[in-house]
Design brief:
single chain; 215 residues; alpha/beta; four-stranded parallel β-sheet; two-stranded parallel sheet; 6 helices; disordered N terminus; DNA damage
């Protein structure tokens, strides 16, 4: 599978936006880059009020609460740049489509900006041990995305914890939308990796960045 060239993503010190009545904003690529860059994400009023005051006003008074996709998460200040995925490695299975405005390379840039490394070749891992399987605890953030997946061996991939010890596999949500498509993709993945690597959907990546933690 082709991995796209990964150039550094532009970073910012401030992201100016127009929040809704709940002081939250639409999740955009620039918003996510701002978070992993350690930028202040503030209401555009910060700029206009600073110009009027002829000095830079405290950003904390204008900071937005977060994005509309993760209402439970709340920003309490700029993130530490590159800290979120520091030491973690990811392999992208196919492509990660962030939307028509952003090519696959932007997803890779976003991972690197958050401190993660991109594995260029499909990693092999020891297959999970046979015998009586333990409790199947799917990562909470994955449950809505993998509703169509019924096979226990497929669902188990999303229960394996993401750790620094082994690369994690990132899969675009569209590959998991139907039981048939998901079965084809996950069978191929298990055959290639042995079934011992954590798998996460694209939405998990974006939710982690919004929350500044592995969710």
């Amino acid at each position: 599978m082709t991995q796209h060239a990964d150039k550094k993503v532009d970073t910012y010190t401030h992201v100016l936006t127009v929040p809704n009545k709940n002081n939250r904003v639409t999740r955009t690529f620039k918003y996510l880059v701002g978070l992993v860059s350690g930028a202040w994400v503030v209401d555009i009023k910060w700029l206009t009020d600073s110009i009027e005051a002829r000095k830079l006003l405290p950003e904390a008074n204008y900071m937005v609460q977060g994005d509309t996709a993760t209402e439970s998460c709340r920003l309490d200040g700029p993130y530490t740049p590159g800290a979120l995925f520091n030491g973690y490695r990811f392999y992208v299975w196919g492509e990660l489509d962030l939307g028509p405005a952003y090519p696959n390379a932007d997803a890779l840039k976003l991972i690197r900006a958050a401190g993660g490394d991109i594995v260029a070749h499909c990693p092999a891992a020891q297959p999970r041990e046979h015998g009586e399987p333990g409790p199947l605890v799917v990562a909470e953030s994955c449950k809505p995305v993998i509703k169509a997946i019924r096979r226990p061996d497929h669902r188990r991939l999303f229960a394996i914890p993401v750790s620094r010890a082994l690369p994690a596999i990132l899969i675009d949500n569209k590959h998991l939308a139907s039981a048939r498509k998901a079965a084809e993709v996950l069978d191929s993945l298990i055959e290639a990796t042995g079934g011992g690597l954590a798998c996460r959907p694209k939405s998990w990546l974006l939710d982690c960045i919004s929350a500044n933690e592995l969710v």
